[in-house]
Q: What sequence folds into this?
């Protein structure tokens, strides 16, 4: 079933809204009908919103005993046919990793909003960070893919939550909204649309739920109660869900399909924005809140006569390596400011060819100022 | 208002700083401005220093945090001492004169708002809405009618009349300051 346009169930029009509330409204607009969670700063307002609103909208809300149970409940709910989510922060993401791998391997659509705070470990609970970039991709063992989207505004806390649900449902993968404390707690003008585009998972009765002949295919997904003989296991399984742990070629093909179903669709999934890129000599690659500091810095740099541009990554995973290679041609250098010690910088370096890449890192629990980025750009001239 | 303005309202937890900031942000959006608000967050919001920052602009806001306030409202000595040195050149600094002794002679916009709230309105809880009126009146950045509409949405019905009086009280004083 392709995208369909539905009326936005939340209040449309111009509003002044917090990022976390906007993410919760995005989930409701996308059709989320199950939330299982455990509160954690700085994401808790999402859970509070869902606890107030979800049951009134025909959904179910459960406060679980911890994050392990939370993500498990979300996976279970998804198999009943519900669009399901949780919200957490870094320590919760760490606890959820085992079941996120289970979701990836069982091709279960789940959405996780990660409102990042300064880690590692408990770190600084109320302070901002962006250190979960690699954790959401590589945190569970084995090879698998996820989708991760990086909002830079309250508007996108709404719209990218909807998109996370759509991609998760369509691709049957875990999808993350990789937000940051500064955006979760930002209040901002939002123009809430009258309608939203939603994707409801594809189900063809009788079709096998765990395999296709296409080596990058996405199988039909039935739910418990549909009348199918349905089994879900985290062990290697055949296309009908039976354990099949013998046969190296079979396991190899399965793991490759799970990756390829995402990677072969990168052109449809990956989104970015460019500012002043046409004649840019220095390009800031930024994402999330830091991209707003970067845009302000790029504008100031232009006023100072520096040909700077901004490449804003909206999709972090899958990583758009072709985009980096394409932009790298003909520029003098990349600057990658991040509220971590260079997690995306390493990716940019890998695909920048001979173009120099400079990393600007800050892990002190506060946002990177436009002045810091401007100073780095001036040093690169 | 024609260009980006940065506003910082600071005081102690419990003075209604965060609510005042949210109300002003809501009012700005109602009059089609762009607004971005951030509050102090964490333990300090529950008893220690509290802060509400707001950026206003007629166009989309890139960096949404306050760096050099064009308007500072200091509701405690600690807030004044911390934030007054960092304001923009030509900034307007308003303070609660019952709680703050200003150190810079140009900071002349002081009013004993806490005492005013208690003595004139019989309730110290509405001091923050007097401040909203003062800010709207002194700066001219908001439409007073729209601010009143926003306030009505934030305040429970049974306190509406009280808050209307508080807003009007602040507006009158603020307008006088704005002309000074």
A:
């Amino acid at each position: 079933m392709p995208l369909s346009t539905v009326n936005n169930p939340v209040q449309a029009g111009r509003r002044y809204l917090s990022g976390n509330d906007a993410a919760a409204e995005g989930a409701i607009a996308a059709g989320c009908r199950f939330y299982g969670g455990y509160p954690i700063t700085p994401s808790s307002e999402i859970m509070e919103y869902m606890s107030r609103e979800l049951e009134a909208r025909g959904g179910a809300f459960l406060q679980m005993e911890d994050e392990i149970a939370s993500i498990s409940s979300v996976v279970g709910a998804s198999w009943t046919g519900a669009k399901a989510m949780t919200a957490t922060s870094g320590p919760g993401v760490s606890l959820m990793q085992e079941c996120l791998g289970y979701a990836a391997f069982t091709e279960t659509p789940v959405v996780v909003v990660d409102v990042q705070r300064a880690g590692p470990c408990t770190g600084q609970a109320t302070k901002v960070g962006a250190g979960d970039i690699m954790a959401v991709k590589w945190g569970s063992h084995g090879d698998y893919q996820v989708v991760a989207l990086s909002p830079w505004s309250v508007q996108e806390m709404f719209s990218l939550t909807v998109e996370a649900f759509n991609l998760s449902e369509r691709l049957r993968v875990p999808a993350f909204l990789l937000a940051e404390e500064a955006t979760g707690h930002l209040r901002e003008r939002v123009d809430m649309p009258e309608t939203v585009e939603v994707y409801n998972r594809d189900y063809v009765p009788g079709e096998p739920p765990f395999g296709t002949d296409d080596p990058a295919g996405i199988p039909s997904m039935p739910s418990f109660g549909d009348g199918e003989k349905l089994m879900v296991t985290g062990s290697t399984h055949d296309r009908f869900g039976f354990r099949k742990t013998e046969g190296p070629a079979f396991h190899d093909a399965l793991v490759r399909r799970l990756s390829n179903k995402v990677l072969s669709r990168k052109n449809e999934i990956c989104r970015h924005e460019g500012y002043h890129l046409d004649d840019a000599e220095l390009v800031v690659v930024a994402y999330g809140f830091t991209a707003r500091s970067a845009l302000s810095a790029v504008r100031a740099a232009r006023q100072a006569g520096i040909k700077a541009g901004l490449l804003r990554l909206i999709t972090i995973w899958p990583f758009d390596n072709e985009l980096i290679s394409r932009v790298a041609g003909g520029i003098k250098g990349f600057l990658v400011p991040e509220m971590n010690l260079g997690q995306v910088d390493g990716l940019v370096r890998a695909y920048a060819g001979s173009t120099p890449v400079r990393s600007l890192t800050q892990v002190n629990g506060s946002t990177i100022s436009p002045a810091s980025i401007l100073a780095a750009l001036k040093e690169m001239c | 208002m024609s260009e980006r303005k940065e506003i910082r309202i600071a005081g102690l937890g419990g003075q209604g700083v965060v609510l005042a900031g949210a109300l002003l942000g809501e009012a700005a959006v109602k009059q089609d401005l762009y607004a971005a608000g951030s509050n102090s967050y964490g333990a300090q919001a529950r008893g220690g220093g509290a802060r509400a920052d707001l950026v206003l602009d007629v166009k989309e806001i890139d960096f949404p945090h306050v760096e050099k306030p064009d308007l500072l409202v200091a509701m405690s000595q600690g807030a004044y001492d911390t934030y007054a040195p960092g304001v923009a050149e030509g900034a307007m600094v308003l303070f609660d004169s019952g709680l703050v002794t200003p150190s810079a002679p140009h900071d002349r916009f002081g009013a004993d708002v806490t005492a005013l709230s208690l003595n004139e309105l019989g309730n110290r809880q509405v001091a923050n809405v007097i401040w909203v009126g003062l800010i709207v009146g002194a700066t001219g950045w908001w439409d007073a009618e729209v601010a009143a509409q926003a306030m009505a949405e934030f305040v429970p019905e049974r306190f509406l009349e009280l808050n209307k009086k508080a807003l009007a009280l602040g507006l009158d004083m603020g307008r006088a300051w704005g002309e000074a």
